[in-house]
Amino acid sequence: TLDSINIVFSNNQLKDEILYKKATIAIKHKNYNLALSQLDSLISSFPLSSVCDDALMLAAKLENNHLHNPL
Length: 71
Known about the structure:
The protein is about 70% helix and about 0% strand.
């Protein structure tokens, strides 16, 4: 699983990518609050990440379309 990568390889360079992937998986399962939590963690922990912009856009879409909290 994605969590095992962080456990086994604690110093890996993929933590931001893993959070993003976990968020997209949560969205597929319609678990929007969990997805938003994963995206918020990514945005706050890895602001210079290559996927941070994507995470910001996806979080805004979730808020607007599924959680009914337009920004």
